[in-house]
Amino acid sequence: MQNSMQTNMDDFLPLRDVAFNTLRQAILTGELKPGERLMEIRLADKLGVSRTPVREAIHKLALEGLVTMVPRHGAEVAQITEKSMNDVLEVRRALDALCAELACDRITEDELTALKLACDHFEQCVAVKDTRKIAQADVALHDIIAQATGNQRLIQLIHNLSEQMYRYRFEYIKDSSQHEGLVNEHRIIYQSIVGKDKETAAAAARTHIDNQKKAIIRKIRLDQGCPSEANSPRQTDNG
Questions:
Q1: Nearest to residue 22, comparing CAs of 56, 47, 41, 39?
Q2: What percent of the chain has pLDDT over 70?
Q3: What is the mean pLDDT of the segment spanning 103-112?
Q4: Which residues contact 113 (CB under 8 A, 6 or more apart)?
Q5: Which of 19, 66, 134, 148 lies at a CB distance of 3.0 to 4.6 Å from 57, suitable for a disulfide?
């Protein structure tokens, strides 16, 4: 873990929230690795706080599923597993397809302009190969589509899942070989929404998630030393 974690601190937040936000970001971006032990004293020194806010942050992260409490061993960063990923992406796949369909009917001209700018910004981030900016641009793009539905319950569900998905999405985006495919998928989704083509928009949204799932499964199995059963080529169709 880098000392640069301290740059994320907000002087106006309680120390427990500072510790929580900083550790959470470090886990989501892979700065703290799956399986890495969370030593309270060491983390407190890194963050410049006492052990109490660190301990509170760790327990809160455990409630989010980002930290695992191991008996007689302490806290460690939760592993990225196929089961946890499948649970999240299965729901997100259905919701993203619904968002794309609804956006075809409900998106405003201003939102279309914002979506085009978001696609362009994503491509610019890909060009400079800044993984964190790519991940943020990807989230922003999908948030615009969700907002275009005008369905507040759906928007809230997407927001909640985005928080859980970020860890998997970041692992996916770190693989630069996936970037061209991501750009193309975003273009198809955008063009389908512009053309009010619900079927293509929904299918493209599902394919977008399916390709993420395949790539992350390959990485999980490689990290575990397991033979990959997910080596099928990247989907390029919209079915």
A1: 47
A2: 89
A3: 98
A4: none
A5: 19
Q: What are phi and psi of 75, to 5 degrees?
A: -95, 145
CA–CA dist 103, 198 (Å, integer)? 9
CB 147 within 8 A of CB 193: no
Q: How many contiguous H segments (helices) and E segments (strands) does the chain have?
A: 9, 2
Q: Which residue has the tokens 């599923």?
A: 65
Alpha-carbon separation of residue 55 from 17, 51, 63, 165 (angstroms): 11, 6, 13, 25
Phi, psi of 49 (to 5 degrees): -130, 175
- Percent helix, strand, coil in the chain, to 5, is 70, 5, 25
Tokens of 191: 């063009």
- Contact of 141 with 119, CB cutoff 8 Å: yes
Pick from 53, 35, 50: nearest CA to 23 = 53
Nearest CA among 101, 8, 95 for reference residue 48: 8
Asked if residues 68 and 76 have their Cβ atoms less than 8 Å apart, the reply is yes
